Amino acid sequence: MITEKEIQHIAKLARLNFKKEELKKFQREFSKILDYIEKLKEVDISKVEADFQKSFLKNVIRNDEPKEKLKLEIAKKLIEAMPSTQDNYLKVKKVI
Amino acid sequence: MKFEDLTIEKVHQGLLKKEFSALELTKFFLERIEKENPKIFAFLEVNRELAISQAKEIDEKIITGQKISPLAGIPCAIKDNILVKDFKCTAGSKILKKYIAPYDATVVKKLKEKGVIILGKTNLDEFAMGSSTEYSAFGPTKNPIDLKRTPGGSSGGSAAAVAANLCIFALGSDTGGSVRQPAAFCGIVGFKPTYGAVSRFGLIAFASSLDQIGPMTKTARDCEIVFEAIKGKDEMDSTSIEIYSGKSLTFKSLKEIKIGIPKEYFVKGIDPEVEKVVKNAIRKYEEMGVKIEEISLPHTEYALPCYYILAPAEASSNLARYDGMKYGIKEEIEGKDIFEIYSKIRGNNFGPEVKRRIMLGTFTLSAGYFEAYYLRAQKVRLLIKKDFEEAFKKVNFIFTPTTPTPPFLLGEKLKDPVLMYLSDIFTVPANLAELPAISIPCGKVGNLPVGLQIIGPLGSDFQVIELAKFYDT
Fold first, then answer.
1. Are B104 and B84 contacting, i.e. CB atoms less than 8 angstroms apart?
2. Which residues in chain A have Cβ-Cβ distances shorter than 8 Å to B414?
3. Domain range for residue B20?
4. What is the pLDDT of residues B390-431, one digit of tens each?
5. How far apart are CA B276 and CA B265, in angstroms?
6. Catalytic residue among B21, B178, B423, B439
7. What does the pLDDT read at residue A74?
8. Cβ(A11)–Cβ(B359) under 8 Å?
9. Chain A: residue nearest B435 by CA?
10. What pLDDT digit, counting tens, does each position of B238-268 carry?
11. What does the alpha-carbon distance between residue B61 and residue B66 come to, in Å, rounded to a whole number?
12. Is residue B222 domain-resident?
């Protein structure tokens, strides 16, 4: 079973805060899911090359040119959606 | 004119013959939603004024003798993880509770160009993660056939809306069965196209290598009309492709068709009554002339654990953008630094299943575990794909049950996440292998619907639908 300390470490990486009382239940459920996906260890993959290419896909490239005039309407809506702004900039707490 | 049991084709004919107007039809559905939605909670938001003004525009076109598309004036519903301009788009999550879509998803843009009437947005499991719509932050949708039961998920709102005749068709999204499983549970048609056949631009991303938008309709013929309208390459989604759309393979003679029945789908865990109904449906196809052959897809049992490594890994990355800073909510949170604020906002506003998957994905991608989980799962995905490639050398299509059981009771699987995951056991392989797959209603256990799943080779979308059309009654 995964330890509470390990859970807390993953939670930190995932930027997820857990309340103390949530943690025990989460640990139990998480361990069950990990047990379930362990099943994959049965498969013989020694002859498989990893290949992340999707079946039909090829690379899509284009010149880096603006296609339409900047859609001001959308830009305005994006700014409106921000919870906190100052002079049309997104305002957040100090990062560094 | 009765507005029950209307299909897209019937509405189109009715509008052309002026048996009713688009406005009358739209008002009928708006009234039905008002009456029925409090019971089943299929819709999260309905925009009455917009629907009525769209309907008036279509009527104007008809009166002035302009040509209209088969989808013009058709009232439909859109899953609430697909952007419809000026509608809220919550993805069933508290973290997007105030988010208003600034533009249309490509599929919505295409449908609007055809003149559909968008009635509203439908409920879903938070970020499409779930199989019962119970993980919606706004409350569960109920199955209109039996209100004690779930409509399935994650597109449960869309499925319930179509089944309860609150709209003519709906759009859903399918990452591991989220269109097909609820379609089966509600007795309607649900289709997951070949990966890339439909643009994902404007679909809120869950697992980008698996997500596809698909139609949810009353008949396979309707499914064809909607798919035709939304498919196609889109420069806003680099993974989109143009699939072969010639319909030359129209099965003039079903006798040339070979259907594979994978033995791995008829093993323990499947409800014997469901098995009986599905086998009956297969027999009906046999009577129509197709040849039935048992086949093997040896890696079937690994598809679900494989999915539960890959999908959460992609989700943990896709959902990193929800930090409460840019959109969606407004919350004053105190913290010693910005990271603590992120963590608190995310912790307070994501629901339990989304948290589980973000954690699972973060874990399997973290240093020291990547090879044991993610890389291994990628390799198993290739083996599953290969199983299908081998099978399609011998048969044209594959028939399976869509789900192992009929719709389960609300609350039945909430205590055990793995039990919930198992309800997608037959639908997940088509996503991993990127294949087109449709679920059609094929019979009942008691009064509960059962779905037959038809899986075809890559790009055979129109043929899969064509084959399903033989079951339309």
1. yes
2. none
3. 8-230
4. 999 999 999 999 999 999 999 999 999 999 999 999 999 999
5. 13
6. B178
7. 85
8. yes
9. A55
10. 999 998 766 555 556 788 899 999 999 998 7
11. 5
12. yes
Considering only the beta carbons, identify the residue of A34, A45, A78 that sits closest to B376: A45
Cβ–Cβ pairs < 8 A, chains A and B: 153
**DSSP-assigned letters across all residues of B327-346:** SS-------SSHHHHHHHHH
Q: How many domains does chain B contain in total?
A: 1
Catalytic residue among B21, B79, B158, B199: B79
Active-site residue, B178 included: yes
- Closest-CA distance of chain B to residue A69, Å: 16
User: Taking all residues of chain B, what is their mean pLDDT, rounded to a whole number?
Assistant: 95
Strands laid side by side in the B258-262 sheet: B43-46, B117-122, B75-79, B169-174, B212-217, B189-192, B437-445, B448-455, B397-401, B258-262, B291-295
CATH fold for domain A4-42:
Histone, subunit A (1.10.20)
Q: Find the range with the poorest average confidence among A31-35, A91-95, B12-16.
A: A91-95
Q: Identify the band that residue B1 occupies on the pLDDT scale cut at 50, 70 and 90.
A: low
Question: Hey, what amino acid is at B126?
Answer: E
Domain boundaries, chain A: 4-42
Contact B417 A17 (CB under 8 A): no
Residue with tokens 């003798």: B65
Is residue B155 a part of any domain in this protein?
Answer: yes
Q: List, for residues B126-162, the tens digit of each pLDDT value.
A: 999 999 999 999 999 999 999 999 999 999 999 999 9
Look up B154 and say whether it is catalytic: yes
Residues of B in contact with A10 (CB under 8 A): 359, 362-363, 366
What CATH number is associated with residue B165?
Answer: 3.90.1300.10
Q: What pLDDT is attached to residue B196?
A: 95
| pTM for this prediction | 0.96
Tell if the CB–CB gap between A40 and B380 is shorter than 8 Å.
yes
Residue B360 lies in a domain: no
Say which of A29, A38, A83 has its CB closest to residue B356.
A29
Q: Does B40 reside within a domain?
A: yes
Confidence at residue B472, expressed as pLDDT on a 0 to 100 scale: 80
Q: Which of B344, B363, B383 sits opposite A10 (nearest CB)?
A: B363
Q: Which residue of B has its CA nearest to A20?
A: B347
Question: What's the pLDDT score for residue B267?
Answer: 83
Chain A residues inside the 8 Å CB shell of B459: 56
* Catalytic residue, candidates B131, B132, B136, B154: B154
- What pLDDT score does B436 carry? 98
Number of alpha helices (DSSP H) and beta strands (DSSP E) in chain A: 3, 2
In chain A, what residues touch B366 (CB-CB under 8 Å)? 10, 13
Given an 8 Å threshold on Cβ–Cβ distance, is A30 in contact with B341?
Answer: no
Joined together, the tokens standing for residue B40 give 């089943």
The ipTM estimated for the assembled molecules is 0.91
Which tops the pLDDT comparison, B440 or A22?
Answer: B440
Structure tokens at B313: 């890994």
